[in-house]
Design goal:
The protein has 180 residues and is an alpha+beta fold. Helix content is 34%, strand content 22%. The strands form 2 sheets. A 4-stranded antiparallel sheet has the order 2-1-3-4, with helices on one face. The chain has a two-stranded parallel sheet with strand order 5-6. The longest helix is centred in the C-terminal third of the chain and has 14 residues, at 117-130. The protein is globular and about 45 Å long.
Length: 180
């Protein structure tokens, strides 16, 4: 479990006249389930990107305040350290894939963490089964449904032990059975 805090956190994208996020004060633990609910355009996706440090590292806007994980400023953490805390599934998961097949995509996550090759097979099979996509492991990712692609993205985070999943529009691509 990790403790996350946003302290007077604000974000203003370059070229925008007003802030997307304004003076957010929030604290939570990674073992909590949290739902952010608002109309489109109110900054939910931007907040998730800030929690990952993506906006800050890529200098996409001006931020004020800070985000900490266990009292460490997120901007001082490597992207791999943050990935051990947060995994993300974007609204359009196909935009985050780096490989062609589900099995390879999950292996890619393990490779980023320098997991020995001999340990990968068991981990991959376990997570494919966990997200109920083991029968699709060698199908092209682009041929999978949106919900199946989300499952691959979730598996890519679970396999490396991310403590909390950040899901942007988590049910947008799922059919009725997938939402259960």
């Amino acid at each position: 479990m990790a403790r996350i805090e946003l302290i007077n956190f604000s974000l203003k994208y370059y070229g925008h006249r007003k802030e997307t996020l304004s003076n957010i004060n929030l604290s939570f633990n990674t073992n909590e389930k949290i739902l952010l609910l608002s109309p489109s355009g109110y900054g939910k996706s931007s907040l998730l990107l800030c929690l990952l440090g993506i906006i800050q590292r890529n200098d996409l806007g001006e931020t004020k305040g800070k985000i900490t994980i266990d009292d460490r400023d997120i901007e001082e953490m490597s992207h791999l350290e943050v990935a051990k805390i947060f995994g993300i599934v974007f609204q359009d998961p196909e935009n985050q894939f780096c490989t062609m097949y589900p099995e390879d995509e999950i292996a890619f996550s393990l490779e980023n963490f320098c997991i020995p090759t001999e340990e990968m097979g068991i981990k991959i099979e376990k997570v494919l089964k966990q997200v109920k996509i083991e029968d699709k492991k060698r199908e092209m990712l682009l041929n999978l449904s949106g919900g199946e692609q989300q499952k691959v993205s979730i598996g890519s985070s679970l396999v490396v032990g991310s403590k909390m999943l950040l899901l942007d529009e988590p049910t947008a691509n799922l059919d009725t059975l997938g939402k259960v």
